[in-house]
Amino acid sequence: MKWDEFRKRGAEAAEWAADYHEGLRDRPVRAQSRPGEVLAQLPAAAPEAAEPLDDILADLDSTIMPGMTHWQHPRFFAYFPANAAPVSVLAEAYVSAMAAQCMLWQTSPAATELETRVCDWLRQSVGLPEGFAGVIQDSASTATLCAVLTMRERALDWAGNRKGLSGQPRLRIYASAEVHTSIDRAIWIAGIGEENLVRIPTNGPMRAMDSDALRDAIAADRIAGHLPAGIIACVGGTSAGATDDITAVMEVAEAEGLYSHVDAAWAGAAMICPEFQALWAGVERADSVVLNPHKWLGAQFDCTTHFLRDPTTLVKTLAIQPEYLKTHGADGIINYSEWSVPLGRRFRALKLWFLLRAHGLAELREMIRNHVAWADALCKRLEKLPQIEIVTQPFLSLFTFRLSAPEGGESDALNQQAVNEINDEGRIYLTQTRIDGALVIRFQAGAWTCTKEDVDVAYDVIRETAERLCP
After folding, report:
1. Three-state secondary structure along 211-273?
2. pLDDT, tens digit, for every residue of 156-186?
3. CATH topology of domain 101-346
4. pTM (predicted TM-score)
């Protein structure tokens, strides 16, 4: 394709995108295809000769689209949202057209300096104090890995990168069982090992880490000759919104001299609303904080903001400067590749800049407040149904419930059947999780185009399913 043809085809793609989004309510939320169904329609080898673009686009509609789950659907109530506001999609088109490699200041000064500015805008909007610096990572998994690597190197006096972990004391990282599995992966990749991720018991309605148990675990590890390295706290855990008492955790981290990381990947977006900031009181004392604008704020994936109270520890952990990556004759610059695991970096700041300017914080706050209010109202309506038990009360826009099995019935099987039937029916999409060992159903409102009427549809679907399965 030449650029003169791209003019025409790009306009057609924009029309396709608008039609796709306008018609989402008419599609089932979750893909209805069976395993292997799409693969069977794809040729086993790549074509030798070029194929007409019209044929490729026809196959997109006939083969690929039926196998897609529609994450931008207004009734996507599963997992957490992965929103893509139209202005963010537009920004990504400009980013793709420029195709810049933004690894160093000199490889695109505007990309680096815009990243510095929009991260500071977001820092201010969520109430983090002056002095925190931000960087845009691809995902919270990468931000958490950066934090774990920093914990490791700081505890080992930066000897891990140089000498490896052989012969070093066993490093220990502390977190509750409510943290995301990205923490487990970070522990694996950092070479610390899953056995050294110490799970701290939780208590209370927020399922928060027991700070006394945390202190005891650290003391026991020191006596055993292990080396405590860091603590990972969560705000808005994936299963049911579990949230640690950040102030209590930070007091332990400071007393023990441990690096602290707060995972607020989903819930952190809500902190643009001042009334929700109490949920992470004490976060200003953390060393590292992550939140995802690509979840609840509407920035197209991937776009994670990683805030650091002192970025020099992260840079000391990750920076590497061969001669070909040095910038001579420029003082005071930032090379964000030294703040990230990958060297290569996309121009992610542009979509955040477009988003914040085109919608403003007031409009984004209104969206989040609506989602929280609608989820709370739905929870109250479901609570009145005799077949429904609310398991965890709403944390922001997330709560869990289950169908009450008839006497002698198998509750887990019943609730899994309910989830399967709801998702196969297609009007809404929900996912399951486990709370204290029991299988429950999650509901989370967060789709960019979600309305109160869409949440009302969720009530109808859940009620109809409950009445059918528990007459």
Report:
1. HHHHHHHHHHHHHCCCEEEEEEEEECCCCCCCECCHHHHHHHHHHHCCEEEEECCCHHHHHHC
2. 999 888 888 888 899 999 999 888 888 899 9
3. Aspartate Aminotransferase; domain 2 (3.40.640)
4. 0.91
